[in-house]
Write a structure and sequence with these properties.
2 domains, alpha/beta, two-stranded antiparallel ribbon, elongated, TIM Barrel
């Protein structure tokens, strides 16, 4: 696929009508107003001049075999901004369906991220650096040591965030549980209920009787308590090692969860307690929490249901980090997760994922400051989520 001008023109010869039967179709030649295509003496169509293509996609729209692809040879932000193909296609979709675009994953596009931050190394004027080959580094993190009878001790300062059963398959959920067990960290049910094997898999056992540990050193399962209350019961809340109250998430702050009906199989419907094939929509807030005092009562209620044995966490979306973290800490939780705009999701309106929230790196400093102002930064743990891709990103988040 030659690239000469601003746009790349490619024709799939396997489906092109003209390529299969020369002379039978020349729609692209007829509709292109810029002379990009030509037809030779044998009736075969060729791309004649890449330089004249302006990216209008008229040829692609009229091609009866859908064989033509027009893609920018450079970023659309340089060639067509602000009227990118994505913007135009979204307008078409809304006009045809009356609905918004719904998609998974997270925010796409250039946002402030960890790549824009560098680490200042230790040298003479600061604490001496450590020799990574010869000196040990304490990495354990304990959550709930002052409030829960059974605090959790993460072997490393990382964990698997909440991803619901339904957004992920059963196999994926159990793989995360085994991964948590092998590394001594925690995984999270998400708001879709618990897979039956998930609690003992996360603890490192292959059987519910927990006779012999298979995956050492064993990890933890965090049970998520969300606005939808999918599959919630006293047994559910006590099935794991900690409970997380979900207030929001990075990819769709201000909105509740959404599991598409196409993903609601018989097994998932049974766990969530909903009909097969129906969309699972969580409210955007807790209807039984109308004030800060109600939030404190919810934390106290969950401590009571778990017999004061398990740590209580709270997950926040990217809104007002300082004030939100301060309120969460004052509500009495043991750890606070704050999920930046780069966080992922199984399904969300594209307009919300792209345009609502603040970057993860902008959430961390005010969240830390809120805990310090309350004198709780050594007691309440802060968990940063959203777009952390590797060890360097995690290190930068810890350093902030």
């Amino acid at each position: 696929m030659p690239v000469i001008g601003t746009f790349c023109v490619s024709v799939d010869k396997d489906v092109c009508v003209n390529a299969q039967s020369p002379g039978k179709c020349a729609t692209c030649v007829e509709v292109c107003p810029y002379g990009v295509y030509e037809i030779d003496a044998q009736g075969q169509v060729h791309v004649n001049n890449y330089n004249t293509c302006v990216g209008c996609r008229i040829c692609a729209e009229f091609c009866p075999a859908n064989a033509i692809r027009i893609n920018p040879a450079e970023s659309e932000y340089l060639s067509r901004y602000p009227w990118t193909f994505g913007q135009i296609e979204e307008i078409h979709h809304k006009s045809l369906t009356g609905g918004y675009l719904l998609r998974g994953f997270g925010t796409a596009g250039p946002l402030p991220h960890f790549d824009g931050i560098v680490v200042v190394p230790s040298q003479l004027a600061s604490e001496s650096p450590r020799d990574k080959y010869r000196e040990e580094c304490q990495m354990e993190v304990v959550i709930g040591e002052d409030t829960a009878e059974e605090p959790i001790t993460l072997r490393y300062p990382i964990l698997f965030p909440a991803m619901s059963y339904g957004a992920l398959s059963r196999e994926a959920k159990l793989a995360l549980a085994i991964g948590a067990a092998k590394t001594g960290i925690a995984t999270n049910t998400g708001e879709g209920g618990v897979v039956p094997e998930e609690p003992y898999y996360a603890n490192g056992y292959a059987d519910p009787e927990r006779k012999e540990q298979k995956w050492a050193p064993g990890g933890y399962l965090v049970i998520q308590w969300s606005t939808g209350r999918w599959g919630v019961s006293a047994d559910y809340v006590n099935a794991g090692d900690a409970v997380e109250i979900k207030i929001g998430q990075g990819a769709k702050p201000g909105m509740g969860g959404h599991l598409l009906g196409a993903k609601v199989t018989e097994e998932i419907a049974a766990v969530r307690g909903i009909p097969v094939g129906s969309d699972a929509l969580s409210p955007c807030r807790y209807y039984d929490v109308l004030s800060f005092e109600d939030m404190k009562k919810m934390v106290a209620f969950l401590r009571d249901v778990t017999d004061y044995k398990k740590p209580i966490l709270m997950k926040l979306g990217p809104s007002r980090p300082y004030d939100d973290v301060r309120m969460a800490a004052e509500a009495g939780v043991d750890a606070i997760s704050i999920d930046g705009i780069c966080g992922g999701t199984g399904a969300s309106p594209d307009v919300v994922t792209q345009g609502v929230g603040i970057p993860t790196i902008a959430c961390i400093p005010p969240a830390v400051r809120a805990l310090k102002d309350l004198g709780l930064h050594r007691k309440v743990k802060l968990i940063a989520l959203g777009g952390i891709r590797n060890g360097l990103d995690a290190f930068k988040a810890l350093a902030m």
